[in-house]
Amino acid sequence: MTENGRFTRDKVLTIDTMNPTIKKVDYAVRGPIVQRAVQIEKELREGVKKPFTEVIKANIGDAHAMGQQPITFFRQVLALCCYPELLNDNMFPEDAKNRARRILQACGGSSIGSYTASQGIDCVRQDVARYIERRDDGVTCNPDNIFLTTGASDGIVTILKLLVCGEGTTRTGVLIPIPQYPLYSAALAELAAVQVNYYLNEEKCWSLDLCELERSLEEARKYCNPKVLCVINPGNPTGQVQSRQCIEDVIRFAAKENLFLMADEVYQDNVYADGCQFHSFKKVLFELGPEYSNTVELVSFHSTSKCYMGECGFRGGYMEVINMDPEVKAQLSKLVSVRLCPPVPGQAILDLVVNPPQPGEPSYNTFIKERTATLSGLAEKAKMTEEILNTAPGIRCNPVQGAMYSFPNISLPEKAIKEAKALGQAPDMIYCMKLLEETGICLVPGSGFGQKEGTYHFRMTILPPRDKLKPFQYASQHVTANWPHIPALTN
């Protein structure tokens, strides 16, 4: 068409012509609250006066951004890999140099700038397999079942892509815990799969209830084909650690109902509460005997982004596939090859996580000291976060047994709830926005993770330094007390 003598054309890609599933994707961890936090940070830099001097980002599990220090050995090896000339420098310990040489020798041209095999560097996958065997008290692990990934998220989405098929009532249903990590709901929306919610029991410290699983599955079979069960342990956003008995029950349930199991275990080193212990799904599966270990399909995921490492930016991780059909496994190999390979620095970091300095090596004592200090600090802050939240009026917080988050319940005035809904907003969204605007504390509303109807929560990480956690009690009390006067609700 022409306009004023000039040729014009309609845009090919518009909001109406784009992929409709993308419009359904929502990722609360980086949603409107966080976007506003970024704006506020800019305003502070420009000299705009606020009731606070900084934004405390307690919304996301980004450990290093909140001051957690990197492990020295990891960064030394990475520096050597990135700039091999440093191998001639005496400032680096010999064990770090040996690790760097081993990784470089496994790379094309002895450079981490080269592509690797799509499944990951062979020696790294072997190290992952040996790590799993040590973790699981000798349960064997085949390196061919290990796929290195771009963080755990990449592996989770890749497996979901393999699983989703069908139309209408035959469309794949995926059972996910509620509250859930929004990666799952976002991925399922993008893949046009059916999200099937099962609710964790808040009254019992966010435990997984078998009766609730059965209810959810039976209901879902009326409108889809549920064939996948996802479990997050330790929990995100709820911070619970599932008992061994619970894991046994889930495995037996998956076997009976012919469900594919996905075990998100990225927080396996983050266990704090007395009486709690991490049990891997794979270990329990094999200890249940051949009836289960030879039949139940399981994929488990781990990452370098959390625990004591906190190396989010390097995007390292792995998944292990158990009892996967060989023909499907070949398709998985094809699918990961499309992305060429995971980031090689992430693969290198992962290798150091699963094969850290050993007793007698020069870096061992420093590594153990740093690792212990980081995990002890997280345990202290987990307890501190729970105590602070439970002394704030209108807030009730379960013990933070593991992971890096609390997910407290907040009591809001009925009038405020009604007015928030009249504005088409979730009440806990307005609560979190008000908290950000008045105190600089950035949280994520519970509505972004899913919650039972009529309940309200927020997710808060335990990562901020101790001195930045302490003001939260006053801040939360202030916002709750002044809720009826929030302009957004009374205008």
Can you describe what's shown?
This protein is an alpha/beta fold and 491 residues long. The protein has 2 domains: 22-67 and 376-490, Aspartate Aminotransferase, domain 1 (Alpha-Beta Complex), CATH 3.90.1150.10; 101-354, Type I PLP-dependent aspartate aminotransferase-like (Major domain) (Aspartate Aminotransferase, domain 2, 3-Layer(aba) Sandwich). Helix content is 40%, strand content 13%. The protein contains 18 helices and 16 strands. The strands form 5 sheets. Strands 4-10-9-8-7-5-6 form a 7-stranded mixed β-sheet, with helices on both faces. Strands 12-16-15 form a 3-stranded antiparallel β-sheet, covered by helices on one side. A two-stranded antiparallel sheet has the order 1-2. Helix 2 (72-82) packs across helix 3, helix 2 packs antiparallel against helix 12 and helix 15 packs across helix 17. It catalyses: L-alanine + 2-oxoglutarate = pyruvate + L-glutamate. Its EC number is 2.6.1.2. This is alanine transaminase. Pfam families: Aminotran_1_2.
Quick structural overview:
This protein has 491 residues and is an alpha/beta fold. The protein has 18 helices and 16 strands.
Please give a handful of descriptors for the protein shown.
7-stranded mixed sheet, L-alanine:2-oxoglutarate aminotransferase activity, 491 residues, Aspartate Aminotransferase, domain 1, disordered C terminus, 2 domains, PyrdxlP-dep_Trfase, single chain, 16 strands, PyrdxlP-dep_Trfase_major
